[in-house]
Specification:
This protein has one domain: Penicillin V Acylase, Chain A, CATH 3.60.60.10. With about 325 residues, it is of the alpha+beta class. A hairpin with a 3-residue loop joins strand 1 and strand 2. The radius of gyration is 20 Å and the shape is globular. The structure holds taurocholic acid. One of its GO terms (molecular function) is choloylglycine hydrolase activity. Its EC number is 3.5.1.24.
């Protein structure tokens, strides 16, 4: 399971938790402007916007889990098993395989709205990258500083929804999560009034009682509500440090510690990495399950301008700073 989020302070920050039982070869990958991006049914993009994100690289191709482009457009794939539907190859002239969406849309779109429009127009192509890399059942979070969208490839067509909450998790389809929020409309960061029986003396016995009933488990529906609540009530300074720190705190509220979520195969779902990307600068901050210190990769002009993929293996070693007196 995964959780994706958008937060605007002075700049706009986007990112996600990637929760999975096994690694998928993930590393930070920059696709520079002049790296030729080839597609099965679309012309090769010889030049395009540079992209930074987390990807595995197969056959010199960036298979992104999420990324941001130079215009500050973000796109993340999140698991959508049992609902994601990719039509078989019907010989369309123009189509995009699911693993081509992030490179193509981030390579070409200057706004999230434009990317969402393209999602509606370009048919999907249910063809795997390689026979040994089966198609991942996904839905997508698309965002920039102006707004967010959710795109869900369903059996009866691709659905694109505006996302005023700025949060996405996994199943069920997006309309469920919006309706489900209604059940939590009474929750508040402030202390609750005694609506039960004002004639009874029921003083709060601690802080945080306005959110009693906020679901604490790791199911997608509960993570959705919890991250929506924490994001809505988020308070931090507008500085880069305060915003980035706050973004990771928000992701931490829905992160999976090893042992809490066991898959049917008897493996542990854990938050392998959490990331936060400043859409204005393209700086990619991340932490991993074992290294909770932040590591950052800058999208410098020199890195944008190249023609070869740049790979940054994850720094997974925790270094503890020992204080001397
Ligand atoms: C597993 C990731 C989604 C996170 C998530 O929701 N996990 C839930 C796991 S579980 O249901 O709870 O078991 C997804 C997001 C993007 C996916 C990757 C991207 O789509 C890019 C390629 C696509 C290839 O078809 C498969 C490998 C892959 C590299 C994908 C591996 C994996 O499916 C990723 C990393």
């Amino acid at each position: 399971m995964c959780t994706s989020m958008v937060l605007t302070t002075r700049d706009t920050y986007v990112g996600r938790n990637l929760d999975l039982e096994d690694a998928f070869g993930e590393r930070v990958v920059i696709t520079p402007r002049a790296f030729p991006l080839a597609f099965r049914r679309m012309p090769t993009l010889e030049r395009h916007q540079a992209i930074i994100g987390m990807a595995s690289v197969a056959g010199d191709y960036p298979l992104y889990a999420e990324g941001v482009n130079e215009s500050g457009v973000y796109m993340a794939g999140l698991n959508f098993p049992g609902n994601a539907y990719y039509p078989p190859d019907r010989g369309e002239e123009k189509a995009l395989a699911p693993w081509e969406l992030i490179p193509f849309l981030l390579g070409t779109c200057e706004t999230a709205e434009a990317a969402a429009e393209q999602m509606k127009r370009i048919p999907l192509l249910g063809v795997p990258f390689q026979p040994n890399l089966p198609l991942a059942p996904l839905h997508w979070h698309i965002a920039d500083k102006h707004g967010a969208f959710v795109a869900e490839p369903m059996a009866d067509g691709i659905k694109v929804y505006p996302d005023p909450v700025g949060v996405l998790t996994n199943n069920p389809p997006f309309p469920f999560h919006r309706t489900n929020l209604v059940q939590y409309r009474g929750l508040s960061a402030a202390q609750p009034d005694n609506c039960l029986d004002p004639s009874l003396d029921l003083p709060p016995f601690g802080q945080g009682m306005g959110a009693v009933g906020l679901p604490g488990d790791w199911s997608p529906a509960s993570r959705y509500v919890r991250s929506a609540f924490c994001k809505r009530n988020s308070a931090c300074d507008s500085s880069e440090e305060s915003s980035v720190s706050q973004f990771f705190h928000l992701l931490d509220t829905v992160a999976m510690p090893r042992g809490a979520v066991r898959t049917p195969e008897g493996k542990w779902d854990i938050t392998r990495y959490s990331c936060c990307i400043n859409t204005d600068t393209g700086t990619y901050y991340y932490k991993t399950y074992d290294n909770c210190a932040l590591t950052a990769v800058a999208l410098t002009e020199e890195r944008r301008a190249g023609d070869k993929l740049l790979e940054f293996p994850l720094d997974t070693k925790l270094r503890i700073t020992w204080q001397e007196g």
